[in-house]
Amino acid sequence: MTVLITGAHGTVGTALTQHCHFEYDLLDKQEATEKLADGTAHPHFESDQITVDISNKEELTHAFNGYDAVVHLAGSSEVSSTFEQVYRNNIRGIYNCLEAAKHSDVDSFIFASSNHVVGQYEKEHAPNLYEQDYDLTVDHTSPVRPDSHYGSSKVAGEAWGRQYADNYGIQFYALRIGSVRPPRWDHPYGDAERGVEQGRWDRESEDYYEQVNRLKCTWQSRRDFAHMVERCLADEDVTFDIFYGVSDNERSWLDIDHARKRIGYDPQDSSEEYGSPKPFRT
């Protein structure tokens, strides 16, 4: 199987390139800071790379030609992104990528969606939602409730994925990713400890422990994310489906049983394994 990864130099993308066990090529936007100006390979990656403007359908179609699968991670990733940002990078981006996949006969398309597709549930129930015994489960059948332009752009991406799956036979996997963090912060205390380093709160403050409790719900370790993508690539049965990207976290309101049953997702990490801020995995 030939696999092309878009947006491979971001936090989520590097989790994939760091931990995946399949061969892949990389595609990134021309303006990505990780790319060299002349389009030569990023020095940290040995895999073949293609530099493309994601807003250009013709370039994308040429880039997608010959690949069996696309893992689409490129786009605006900040919840605070403006409509103009998500329109260009997320809405037009997913449409152009799906059009390119259709014209290039790509078999399967793995889409980096987000928990913010259902983020309003969290807004409504937090911070009590972060406690271990709180009674709420959101699964693939729950109504979408986006909390931002960013969340709504991911809803749009899922809707287009359904359209292209039904009309053109592309297998579409929407991964509603929880919280994937850079290697240094790849643990349930990551957000809280980063806030301490930035001077935003003290280690014994309420803000600190609220950050810990939230990440213990939404964290997906970098290796568990890569494993989820691998399970999608190995699957032969899904036409269209939605899976929540979190590790085996006891207190999460985001369901992973569906991913276990449907694609054999078997996360190796659990936030409850971390009983104190140290030691951290590096």
Sequence-ordered SSE layout with sheet pairings:
Elements: E1 3-6, H1 11-19, E2 25-28, E3 49-51, H2 57-64, E4 69-72, H3 83-103, E5 108-114, H4 119-125, H5 149-168, E6 171-177, H6 190-197, H7 206-218, H8 222-234, E7 240-245, H9 257-263
Parallel strand pairs: 1-2, 1-4, 2-3, 4-5, 5-6, 6-7
Helix pairs in contact: 1-8, 2-3, 3-5, 6-7
Question: Please, could you describe this protein's structure?
Answer:
It is a single chain. This protein is α/β, with parallel strands linked by helices and 282 residues long. The protein has one domain: Rossmann fold, CATH 3.40.50.720. 38% of the residues lie in helices and 12% in strands. The chain contains nine helices and seven strands. It has helices spanning 11-19, 57-64, 83-103, 119-125, 149-168, 190-197, 206-218, 222-234, 257-263; strands at 3-6, 25-28, 49-51, 69-72, 108-114, 171-177, 240-245. A seven-stranded parallel sheet has the order 3-2-1-4-5-6-7, sandwiched between helices. Helix 1 crosses helix 8 (222-234), helix 3 (83-103) runs parallel beside helix 5 (149-168) and helix 6 packs antiparallel against helix 7. Residues 30-47 have low confidence and may be disordered.
Task: Please describe the biggest sheet, giving its number of strands, its sense, and whether it closes into a barrel.
Answer: 7 strands, parallel
Work out the strand percent: 5-15%
Q: Output the structural class.
A: alpha/beta
Q: List the uncertain runs.
A: 30-47
Number of helices: 9
CATH architecture assignment:
3-Layer(aba) Sandwich
Q: Compute the average pLDDT.
A: 90
**What is the total tally of β strands?**
7
Give the domain tally.
Answer: 1
CATH superfamily: NAD(P)-binding Rossmann-like Domain
- Rg measurement, Å: 18 Å
| Inertia-based shape | globular
- What's the helix-strand series? EHEEHEHEHHEHHHEH
Query: In CATH's first tier, which class applies?
Result: Alpha Beta
Helix percentage range: 25-40%
- Give the N-to-C terminal Cα separation: 31 Å
Look up the CATH topology: Rossmann fold
Strand order of the largest sheet: 3-2-1-4-5-6-7
